[in-house]
Amino acid sequence: MASVPQAQRLRDLLEDAIVEGHYAPGDRLDPEALARDYACSRTPIREALQQLAASGMVKVLPKRGTFVAQLGVTELVERFEVMAELEGMCARLAARRATPEELEGLRQAHRACHACLEAGDVDGYYYENGAFHHLIYAAGHNAFLTQEATRLHAILKPYRRLQLHVRQRMQSSYAEHQAIIAALETGDAAGAEQAIRDHVQIQGERFNDLVASMQRLQAMRR
């Protein structure tokens, strides 16, 4: 399984707390209070907040502090649409350019996802799923595209993570990964592009699930 640094785990915990409504948009995040809440030093908290600021989850206002940012449903859907296109490009290039070693790395990540699925480990699956996608970015061998896909992936991480808690989503995600790998292994660029676009894009029932989740979070803040 992937080893996760403390700052990354704290970032994930803070992401969850933001997405689940424990911290509302506009709330100030005090590093000292967070260090007490999460029983750690302020150094990994500061690192986690820096990562969240880079991803757009929080905003740092000079001389005022760090505050929770706000994304509406429309903004999220727009970002997922762009994410689907970027990942589609990555997969299309990876189908043509991936080395045998990179394909084997993807198979290993896929097997790690399966182990988490069998164990019912949603958080573990989330981490291995992230590794799977980043391997596809790298296998496209386009540094600029990899950078942009990685940046947007970071912004959407808490919402991708939230989706995995929807019933049967983990199973569906794993099956979609299998279709992506099958296309990559046969060099089917168009098939790989379409498979990963369908995997990432928010539409149909997944759109309804996202709207429902956002409505629940808004109700919690009232």
TrEMBL record:
Highest taxon in the source lineage: Bacteria
UniProt protein name: GntR family transcriptional regulator
Keyword terms, alphabetized: DNA-binding, Transcription, Transcription regulation
Record bears the keyword Amino-acid biosynthesis: no
Gene3D superfamilies, A to Z: GntR ligand-binding domain-like, Winged helix-like DNA-binding domain superfamily/Winged helix DNA-binding domain
Signal peptide feature range: none
InterPro entries for this protein: GntR_C, TF_FadR/GntR_C, Tscrpt_reg_HTH_GntR, WH-like_DNA-bd_sf, WH_DNA-bd_sf
GO MF assignments: DNA binding; DNA-binding transcription factor activity
One Pfam family it belongs to: FCD
Membrane-spanning ranges: none
HTH gntR-type domain: residues covered: 4-71
